[in-house]
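Lecture 7 notes: from sequence to structure.
We start with the chain below.
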Amino acid sequence: MPQQPDAQARYSRYAVFVDVVGEGSFTKAANRIGYTQSAVSQTVKALERELGCTLVERSRDGVTLTKDGEQFMPYLQAIASDERALAEKQREVQGLGRATITIGTFTSVSRNLLPRPMLDFRRLYPSVRFNLRQSEYTSIAEWVRNGECDLGFTNLAGAESAGLESHSFGPDRMMAVVPPENPLAEKDELTLADLATQPFILLDEGRESVTLHAFEQAGLSPHVCYEVTDDYSILAMVRQGLGVTILYEMMLVGFESGVVVRPIREEPRRTITLGWRNSATLPLAARRFAEYLIRELG
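Predicted structure tokens for the same chain:
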């Protein structure tokens, strides 16, 4: 049953008036928005009293704007449009309220890429909560694929292998890290062949290991003595002379103390990639944060 305006407050008098003019009929506008024709007529009259003039002429042929109505119409349309935008934003914010965004990530992203966007996003949506789960590419991609994480940072190969939708942010090159007392520290640039001769501490990157792939492409096999998931543990091990390693440039910024960092001639690198299972079913909060990340980080 059609309702009175007070019972259906989602339509302001400005929106009702714009609908009447658009439909060219009180009856059609009333049917479209679920009001009685009497309620629509009263709403338009109230607007005319507010503006102090007659806005429309009523005839058997329908509703037409008066000269005053033509003058006011662009402003009334703008108000109605802004009200719709405001209502949409309100629904969006309410939809994000108390939402938890679960993100699979790894050390360098957790430390360098995520803090500022998370802070800024929570300024927009203060009730949103973040849950960061840290691991290597393969596990992260699997978490996203099976729904344990909404979003996941991985490398491009990991996202593609898991069949995820994704966006790539760009390359992050790998650097050689050696103890200061190691003879390799005397060189300005190292090769994978140099590193293959040393006790090697391998960063566990899952099945899509950029390090192992780089050695394989060079026809080399590193002398892996330790395999470790945590980058900072690897740095501590290098400082204590347990071996050499390859770590990502982004992760190393600010942590070069006690080790020697050198570029690698072959320039192995990963492509940092954000993945998600399906855009159509991605929770609203996670989708908005993914859009924010892509807009802010490129």
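Points to note: Confidence is low (pLDDT under 50) at residues 1-9. DSSP finds 13 helices and eleven strands in the chain.
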